[in-house]
Amino acid sequence: MIAFIVVLVVALFSSMLETINPLLGYVDEAIVLVFIVATFVKLLFLEKREVKMLDGWLIAGLILCSAFCIIAFIPNAMVGPYNTFWMQLYTFFGMIKFLLLFYCGRILIRDISLVRSILWVKKIAWIFTWCCLAAYAINLVVPLMQPFDTRFGIVTFSYGFGHPAPFSMVVILFTVMMVFFAFLQKTRMPYVYMLLNLFLVVTAGRSTAVGVYICFFLLLLILPHIRRLPVILFLVLGVFLVWFSWERIVNQFGSENTEARGVLLRTSVLIAKEHSPFGAGLGMFGSHASRLNYSPLYNEYHLSHVWGLSEFNPTFITDSYWAMIIGETGFLGAFLLVCLFLVTLCAIIRSTSGDFKIKLLVVFPFVYALFTSPVDTLLASGSVVSVMLVVIYMMSLAGEVTKSNDMRNSGGIDNV
Fold first, then answer.
1. What digits encode the pLDDT tens for the residues 360-380?
2. Residue 96 banded pLDDT, cuts 50, 70, 90
3. I want to staple 39 with a disulfide (CB 3.0 to 4.6 A). Which of 104, 268, 343, 397 is the partner?
């Protein structure tokens, strides 16, 4: 239990750790590798009975992942690789690490009790929020934090994280976990905590995160009082979110956008068309590998003059997750990856014990990551590891509490 919570906290604050030492930016990848090795050991050497965890969802994921792997590596095999094989493999690993972490995590933490960790996570969540609020208050008097941008008419900050996007994600993840604990333990909703965190998200200046947070808050106002969630409610919240983020969407996808992310997205579509149906190949566009070994595509498509995309200043090359997917694996690869996301989404819902409210809260972080991926850096920054760890954590708690309640109701254990 302690080891998992430590790993979860490290993953949540990995972006902050990266600002301390760039090498710590690889902690997300290290966590996934540790999960893979630990799961392999558990399956083969410790508990062979765990083979039954190879369910239909895992099989479907493996089939889609195998097809995606073939599609991704075909361009490099046909045309000849521009990047090294290890850089190609590293890029592919980054694309599917959410899948590896999710299915390995399901197996690895099975039969591990995490209920006692709830109190510790609550304390960490409150300490995090109060520290951020204190930092903002002190900064009003003595400037300590470097301003990131001006949004909503106020100066915004990243609070020590590398970018406001991962900071907003951590705030939302802590909020979702606190609400999940309230539903799981049947206690009062943490509305005060939610309002404090809403203020933090606003001061980070991420319009999409603010819109999602407001939708989440509005949903929780009625969620405790209904037995099923009407479809019309999703439509209303979706329309509100699109309206709230419309300016951001237009800026990202509009042809007049000359910023790195918008240019990357539009260019990736051109690359996918000209290299149909497989794309330009791994390590060629929008990936960390294409930044380390500067890809000739940036010169070919006249991107080397864009701020943040030049060979001498490639800071924003990895700013768009879907630009990397579309440009490197083509439309076919992007379609297969969307299918992988959908299979994982269904697997989370079907594998979570409890009523629809619990299922909704467990799947919410993953939905948030997918929804914001076209217009934000969440998936591109590797923060999907934090998202999947939180999902696995809540899934495990839901199953553990449901099993305990079933045993109590059947007289298997005494009431406590």
1. 899 989 988 888 777 666 676
2. confident
3. 104
Quick: pLDDT tens for 265-278: 888 889 999 887 88
> 151 pLDDT exceeds 60?
yes
Three-class HEC string of the chain: CHHHHHHHHHHHCHHHHHHHCHHHHHHHHHHHHHHHHHHHHHHHHHCHHHHHHCCHHHHHHHHHHHHHHHHHHHHHHHHCCCCCHHHHHHHHHHHHHHHHHHHHHHHHCCCCCCCCHHHHHHHHHHHHHHHHHHHHHHHHHCCCCCCCEEECCEEECCCCCCCHHHHHHHHHHHHHHHHHHHHHHCCCCCHHHHHHHHHHHHHHCCHHHHHHHHHHHHHHHHHHHCCCCCHHHHHHHHHHHHHHCHHHHHHHHCCCCCCHHHHHHHHHHHHHHHCCCCCCCCCCCCCHHHHHCCCCHHHHCCCCCCCCCCCCCCCCCCCCHHHHHHHHHHHHHHHHHHHHHHHHHHHHHHHCCCCHHHHHHHHHHHHHHHHHCCCCCCCCCCCHHHHHHHHHHHHHHHHHHHHHHHHHHCCCCCCC
